[in-house]
């Protein structure tokens, strides 16, 4: 007797055919529908806040004073949680942030052979059919660290949001991390 998985599988019968054969409807396997939105700041392992500066085309983790946090320009994120028709390795999420009177969403693009994290002006869609460069899978960082998370890029397994030191900046990047490796640069708390 084998152990059953606790994953749910969506099956929709369409009709009962000849010889009582059951036919099934094919469902869109990657369809995502926005379920809820959380409003949070993102902190790295050094307790620095992620700050987006679209005018400079940069997102970096910075030391922020309480007064700066009250203003909150580019640091209060909306984390859009999606429900999906297939069981996936983590909660599908998308990120957006308000700067001045404009909304920006996080996406990833390939530039000169390297994956780059960008913030583009616009809104996160309510529904996504197929693959999307704005979706990340939210998972607990480690089994013993349930209040910290890591975010894997949905279109490239093993690529995670992380930070990289560039001069005095700790820039937000997409980083290739081998399976099951614990890398503190991708540890984030909400």
From TrEMBL:
InterPro entries noted in UniProt: IL-18, IL-1_fam, IL1/FGF
Top-rank taxon, per record: Eukaryota
Keyword Translocase: no
Subcellular location: Cytoplasm; Secreted
Record has Cytoplasm as a keyword: yes
A cellular component annotation (GO) from this entry: cytoplasm
Subunit note: Forms a ternary complex with ligand-binding receptor subunit IL18R1 and signaling receptor subunit IL18RAP at the plasma membrane. Mature IL18 first binds to IL18R1 forming a low affinity binary complex, which then interacts with IL18RAP to form a high affinity ternary complex that signals inside the cell. Interacts with cargo receptor TMED10; the interaction mediates the translocation from the cytoplasm into the ERGIC (endoplasmic reticulum-Golgi intermediate compartment) and thereby secretion.
Gene: Il18
Gene3D superfamilies assigned to the protein according to its UniProt record, in alphabetical order: 2.80.10.50
Main location: cytoplasm
Family stated for the protein in its record: Belongs to the IL-1 family.
Full protein name: Interleukin-18
Record's keyword terms, sorted: Cytokine, Cytoplasm, Secreted
